C-alpha cells in the first residue's frame, strides 16, 4: 500500500473537492498536512442566519470575518432559519453587524440574500467585493436610498432577483447591472422592470434566462425575449402570487420564437406553451413539469416543422403511458428521458410496480431510446419500502431486447431529508435523499 506522503497535494485537493462538509470536518482533525489542504473547502461556504442568542451569533460572525477565515469564503447565504420564525429583534442587530463586516469577504464569488430587510450600507458595501460574480436577492425589502444615483455599477455576471414582498424595489439593482457583463439573469414579472428592460439595450451575452411569470402574462409580453437573443437555456416559472398583467392577453398571435431565440437549446417551462418553442431548430432538450398528455395534443400534432429534440425530463401525477406515447408522436428523435411520478400516497404506492409492469409489457418508446430514468416521491414521510424496489431488471431486459441502442436504466424513490431529521441548523434548504435506487447497464 502506498504511503500517504507519496500522494500529491493535487490529488488530495481533487478528492476533498467532492466531500460533504461533515467528512471535511473529520479530515480537518486528522493531521497538519490534510488540515491545510482541506481548510479552503471546509470554509468555502458561509450561511449567516438568525439566532436565539445575540452574543453567540456575534461571536460566530467574528470568527468568519477573521483574517484567517474570511479570505477562504467563496459563497455566502444570508437567510433566516425557518424554525426561529424570521429575524426578530436579535436578527436585525445581527444583520447590521454583518452588513458592516461585508468588506472582509474580499474573495467572495457568490452571495445570496433572502428574506432580509437590508440597509444602504449593504448596497454600498457590495461594491467593495471585487471578485463577486453571482448575486441573488430574494424577497428582500428596504426603504428608498437617497443617494442611489451616485453608486457605481455592479460588476457581476449572474444575477437573480425575486420580489414577492412590498417595497422590494427592483430600482435598487437593475439600473446598475452591466448588460454587456451578464450571462445569467433570473427575474419575476414586474411592470417597472419589464419597461426598464424594453426601453434599454439588449443583453447580448445572457445565455441562461429565467422568468417567473404567468403564461398569460408572458403571451402579452413576448417582446421581452427579443432582448435576450443569445439565450441557450430558458426557464419559465409560474408563481401564483406574482402580479398578473392587467391588460390581459393581447389577442395577437405569438411572435415566431424561432427568429427571436435562434440559439435556444433547452426549454424548462409549462407544457401548455410547448407549441411555441417546439419549432425552434436548435432546441434539443425539454424539462416539463406537470405534463397532462391529453391537453394541447392537437396543437402539438399540427406543428409541421421538424424538431431535433433528443432529451426530456418531465413529471406527472397522471398517466405515464400517455406521456411516453405523446413524446413518441411529437419527438421523433427522442433518446433520453427522466420521468417522475410524484406525490404518491400510502394507498397509491402500488402504482409504481404497475408502471414498471406496463412499461415492460407495452414498451411505448421510440426506436432511438438509449437511456431511461424513473423516480417517484411520496406525499408524506412514509418510506413504503416493505416490498422493495420494482423489478428494474425485467424492464431492462425488455428494453435491451427491443431497442439495440438502449444503454442504461435508473430507478429510485425520493424523500425529503428534513422530514426525517437529517438537516443541520446551517442548512435548511430542501434536500432530496434516496430510499432505494437501482442503476442497470446493458453492457
From TrEMBL:
It comes from the Eukaryota. InterPro entries: LRR_dom_sf (IPR032675). This is F-box domain-containing protein. The lineage of its organism: Eukaryota, Fungi, Dikarya, Basidiomycota, Agaricomycotina.
Amino acid at each position: 500500500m502506498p504511503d500517504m506522503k507519496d500522494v500529491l497535494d493535487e490529488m488530495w485537493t481533487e478528492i476533498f473537492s467532492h466531500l460533504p462538509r461533515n467528512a471535511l470536518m473529520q479530515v480537518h482533525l486528522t493531521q497538519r498536512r490534510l488540515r491545510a489542504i482541506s481548510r479552503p473547502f471546509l470554509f468555502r461556504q458561509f450561511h449567516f442566519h438568525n439566532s436565539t442568542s445575540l452574543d453567540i451569533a456575534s461571536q460566530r460572525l467574528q470568527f468568519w470575518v477573521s483574517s484567517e477565515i474570511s479570505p477562504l469564503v467563496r459563497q455566502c447565504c444570508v437567510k433566516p432559519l425557518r424554525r426561529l420564525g424570521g429575524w426578530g429583534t436579535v436578527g436585525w442587530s445581527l444583520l447590521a453587524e454583518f452588513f458592516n463586516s461585508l468588506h472582509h469577504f474580499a474573495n467572495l464569488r457568490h452571495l445570496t440574500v433572502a428574506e432580509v430587510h437590508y440597509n444602504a450600507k449593504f448596497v454600498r458595501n457590495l461594491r467593495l467585493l471585487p471578485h463577486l460574480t453571482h448575486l441573488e436577492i430574494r424577497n428582500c425589502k428596504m426603504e428608498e436610498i437617497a443617494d442611489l444615483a451616485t453608486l457605481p455599477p455592479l460588476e457581476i455576471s449572474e444575477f437573480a432577483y425575486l420580489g414577492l414582498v412590498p417595497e422590494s424595489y427592483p430600482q435598487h439593482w437593475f439600473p446598475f447591472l452591466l448588460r454587456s457583463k451578464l450571462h445569467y439573469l433570473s427575474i419575476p414579472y414586474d411592470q417597472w422592470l419589464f419597461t426598464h428592460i424594453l426601453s434599454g439595450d439588449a443583453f447580448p451575452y445572457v445565455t441562461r434566462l429565467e422568468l417567473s411569470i404567468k403564461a398569460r402574462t408572458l403571451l402579452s409580453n413576448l417582446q421581452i425575449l427579443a432582448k435576450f437573443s443569445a439565450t441557450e437555456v430558458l426557464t419559465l416559472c409560474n408563481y401564483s402570487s406574482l402580479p398578473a398583467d392587467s391588460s390581459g392577453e393581447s389577442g395577437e398571435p405569438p411572435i415566431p420564437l424561432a427568429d427571436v431565440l435562434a440559439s435556444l437549446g433547452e426549454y424548462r417551462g409549462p407544457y401548455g406553451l410547448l407549441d411555441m418553442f417546439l419549432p425552434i431548430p436548435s432546441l434539443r432538450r425539454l424539462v416539463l413539469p406537470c405534463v397532462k398528455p391529453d391537453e394541447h395534443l392537437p396543437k402539438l400534432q399540427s406543428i409541421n416543422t421538424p424538431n431535433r429534440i433528443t432529451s426530456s425530463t418531465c413529471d406527472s401525477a397522471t398517466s405515464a403511458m400517455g406521456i411516453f406515447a405523446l413524446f413518441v408522436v411529437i419527438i421523433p428523435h427522442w433518446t433520453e428521458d427522466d420521468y417522475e411520478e410524484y406525490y404518491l400516497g400510502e394507498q397509491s404506492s402500488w402504482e409504481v410496480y404497475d408502471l414498471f409492469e406496463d412499461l415492460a409489457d407495452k414498451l411505448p418508446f421510440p426506436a432511438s431510446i438509449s437511456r431511461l430514468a424513473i423516480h417517484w416521491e411520496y406525499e408524506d414521510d412514509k418510506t413504503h419500502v416493505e416490498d422493495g424496489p420494482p423489478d428494474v431488471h425485467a424492464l431492462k431486459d425488455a428494453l435491451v431486447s427491443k431497442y439495440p441502442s438502449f444503454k442504461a436504466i435508473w430507478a429510485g424513490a425520493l424523500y425529503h431529508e428534513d422530514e426525517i431529521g437529517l438537516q443541520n441548523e446551517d442548512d435548511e434548504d430542501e434536500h432530496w435523499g434516496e430510499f432505494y435506487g437501482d442503476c442497470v447497464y446493458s453492457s
